[in-house]
Amino acid sequence: MPAFVLDASVTLAWCFQDEAAPWSDGLLLSLRTGDRAQVPAHWPVEVSSAFSSAFRRKRATLDEVRGFWDDIAQLPIEIEPPLTPIAAKGVLDLAIQYGLTPYNAVYLDLALRLSLPLASLDSALCKAASAAGVALL
Fold first, then answer.
1. Which residues pair with 79 in a beta bridge?
2. Which CATH number fits the domain 4-132, given the four candidates 3.50.50.60, 3.10.450.50, 3.40.50.1010, 1.10.3090.10?
3. How far is CA 118 from the centre of its chain?
4. What are the residue boundaries of the structural domains of the chain, listed by start?
């Protein structure tokens, strides 16, 4: 069973030294030693988008961004199936209620539905999660 909902901001902190922090490194270690994370269906595309941007801006080489995916693929991260239109309506409602993008609201929705804490470095998402009663890591 998953131990927490993981968002893309934390995933990227594992890959880029200038974003790394002891807190995010601790979550990575927890995944390597038995914890599991849950992510929404769009998470791989969101992370790939950031990797593509890093490559275009010469922040990382193609080999590095491909290597990041190789490393991430070894972690126990469970990907949710895509949202149904009815579930997407609920995500839209959360986005509007908490002033989030739907991309971020889906992490909040997942944490609420699964009663799991959220791991995020996104300040707006963390504020919304606190307001919604979701525990933060």
1. 39
2. 3.40.50.1010
3. 9
4. 4-132
Closest CA to 14 of 28, 32, 33: 28
Statement: residue 9 has pLDDT above 80? yes
Beta strand spans in 1-137 (E): 4-6, 37-39, 77-79, 118-119
Is the pTM higher than 0.70? The answer reads: yes
Q: Residue 31's closest CA among 97, 84, 68, 77?
A: 77
Question: Using one digit for the tens of pLDDT, what is the confidence trace for 37-91?
Answer: 999 999 999 999 999 999 999 999 999 999 999 999 999 999 999 999 999 999 9
